[in-house]
Amino acid sequence: MVCKERFRRIFLSRAIVALAISAIPSFPQVPTGTIGGAVLDQSEAVIQDAKVTVVNRETGAQRSANSDSAGLYLVADLPPGTYEVKDGAKASSNNKLNYSARL
């Protein structure tokens, strides 16, 4: 009898924990996107520490990032929309980046 009672207590305690965990509300996922790339000059050499600005065309909101030592940049957690990407590279005024992306 002692074994059955012990088994029953263990079973009930696990069932209560399982029900409590399943009752925790889940949070909805927020849709976001990421824009990334490489900043290169006309000879395809990487441009380090170039400031890249991402502008949402609908709202005008701006986010900036600098390219790393490999010329790579990443702007994350962007809400859906159409974005314009601009580069302000230090190396030369001939280095222009201007394109659109739809998230």
Keywords:
two-stranded antiparallel sheet, 1 helix, single chain, elongated, 103 residues, alpha+beta, 20% helix, four-stranded antiparallel sheet, Immunoglobulin-like
Q: Give me the side-by-side strand order of the main sheet.
A: 3-2-5-6
**CATH class label of the domain at 33-102:** Mainly Beta
What is the oligomeric state here?
single chain
Number of helices: 1
In words, what does this structure look like?
By secondary structure, the protein is of the alpha+beta class. It has a domain at 33-102: Sandwich (Immunoglobulin-like), CATH 2.60.40. The chain is built from one helix and six strands. The strands form two sheets. Strands 3-2-5-6 form a four-stranded antiparallel sheet, with no helix packed on it. Strands 1-4 form a two-stranded antiparallel sheet. Strand 2 (51-56) and strand 3 (62-66) form a beta hairpin. The model is unreliable at 89-96 (pLDDT under 50).
